[in-house]
Amino acid sequence: MIWLRDLSIFWGMFHVIFLFIMLFRSRFTKKRTVLAAGIGMGILMGVNGMGLLLYGIDAISQAFLFTCSIPSFIFFYVMSADKRFRFLLTFCLADTTCLWLMAVTNLLDYYLGGGEYVLMFFSRLIAFPLVEYLVWRYLRKPYLELQDAVEKGWGIFAGMTMLYYLLLVVTVQFPTNIVERPEDIFLCVLVLLLMVFNYATIFSSLYRQLLLYRKQQSERLLLEQKSSLENQLESQKRIRKMKHDMKGYTATLSGLLAEGKVKEAQEYLKGVESEMEPLAPSFCADPYLNAVFVHYSQKLQELGAVCKMDIQAGEGELPYMELCQILSNGLENVCDAFKKLEVEKREVSVQMKYSGGCLGIKIRNRCREELHVERGTIAPTDKEGWDHGFGLATIQEAAERLDGEMFCYTEKGNFVLDVMISCHPFGKSTARG
Most CB atoms closer than 10 Å: which of 97, 247, 277, 342? Predict the structure, then answer.
């Protein structure tokens, strides 16, 4: 029945890769990631399989750290969008979870299954998919959300997880398999139980950070709504002032024309036009979106930036709450980026138009030459503090609420934010360059 043991080992090796990929963020597309992982890990599993056949389970178990763990760590580190401690935590988390399952099923088979490997095989056959389901159902989404939200504080959790991984490897495999060392089994059980509490501590701490992140997201949303409404009120005040001033302008023009001073009236009209233009600029028909465009066009102008806008948002009803979030965060990021660029390099273009059944928003701005962001990943913030680094994550959440997607990437010295949301054109479209 040794073949059941060997088959269960390969079953566990396959699932540790699958579990890791669920929590891991690759620099490449999903298709390329799965293909590369299948080839790379397939070769690694083949090498370990040959070693198992040639040298036996004891030799492979003792060399597993060097024949599987370290090579797979290097392989996925090259592919990972996350570096340093976030990657280390994710890698050790997947490896330690699977090693824990294998140790527990090994002990259960030894004491309850008579060491025939039947219980080991069937318990692993059930345990690994069950753990993966639980991770997918309850852990994956908040864990990925947390990786987007928190830039610092991963080191202590990664260090704890790595030490427990090494402790478990040594306890279970050195100098021989734990079932061959009855005097150490009680110690091994204590280590296994301690790891449960260790991970409970880690996850509870991470969950508290996630709650803090969501609270900050909510506060940020309220501030954006407040800012948008304030801009709208300011725009309305300017319009009312313009209407009030029109009475005076009309009276002056009537007087000039009555006296036959046509040339003077034309000069006066030019002055009125130049004075009225900044009072109520119009980029689109929606008042809320227009308030955002007005606010940031003025902010970009103050930064000396060249800004080109092509807005075709339509005159009908739009989901302005989410769109204001997307535009505000996207343009705020542009302003922050321009503060670190020379004035002559500050160029940005904003497009908002319909394409088929979708509304597309594309913001393209010049960025630092050293910045490199692969399509499908989120650019990390370089700001300090807990109140930064939420812009792109907020845009992504807003796009998802509208059944859309967000992509960001660098291209020819430009940072591109591309958002597509599912909706249909309403009414006539308006454009302003």
Answer: 97
Whole-angstrom Cα distance, residue 411 to residue 51?
46
Task: Of 99, 111, 96, give the one whose Cα is nearest residue 185.
Answer: 111
Query: Coil, strand, or helix at residue 420?
Result: strand
**Position 4, amino acid:** L
Output the pLDDT for position 201.
84
Rounded mean pLDDT, 314-318:
64
Mean pLDDT of the chain: 80
How far apart are alpha carbons 164 and 93 in whole angstroms? 10
Structure letter (DSSP) for residue 332: H
Handedness of CA 203, 207, 208, 212 (dihedral sign): positive
Question: 206 near 93, Cβ under 8 Å?
Answer: no
Q: How many CB atoms lie within 10 A of CB 91?
A: 25
Q: Are 133 and 119 in contact (CB under 8 A)?
A: no
Q: CA 313, CA 425: separation in Å to the nearest integer?
A: 8
Q: Residue 281: what pLDDT?
A: 61
Query: Could you identify the residue written with the tokens 């001073």?
Result: 261
d(CA 132, CA 138): 10
Residue 235's pLDDT is 65
* Per-residue tokens: 327: 């535009």
Give Cα separations from 184 to 100, 178, 231, 412 (angstroms): 16, 7, 70, 60
| Assigned fold of 281-433 | Heat Shock Protein 90 (3.30.565)
Q: How much is the pLDDT for 334?
A: 92
C-alpha to C-alpha distances, 173 to 114, 115, 196, nearest whole angstrom: 20, 17, 19
CA angle 290, 412, 78 (to 5 degrees): 110
Residue pair 382/208 in contact by the 8 Å Cβ criterion: no
41: which 2 tokens? 């890990």
* SS3 of the chain: helix, strand, coil, percent, to 5: 70, 10, 20
How far apart (Å, rounded) are the C-alpha atoms in residues 182 and 115? Answer: 14
SS3 of 55, please? helix
Distance CA 423, CA 55 (A): 62
Is the bond into 129 cis (omega within 30 degrees of 0)?
A: no
CB-based burial of residue 168 (10 Å sphere; 0-12 exposed, 13-18 middle, 19+ buried)? Answer: buried
Map tokens 């024309």 to a residue: 257
CA pair distance 12, 338, nearest whole angstrom: 50
- Domain locations in the chain as residue ranges: 2-218, 281-433
Beta bridge partners of 418: 362, 407
pLDDT at 383 over 70: no
Dihedral sign, Cα of residue 174, residue 179, residue 183, residue 184:
positive
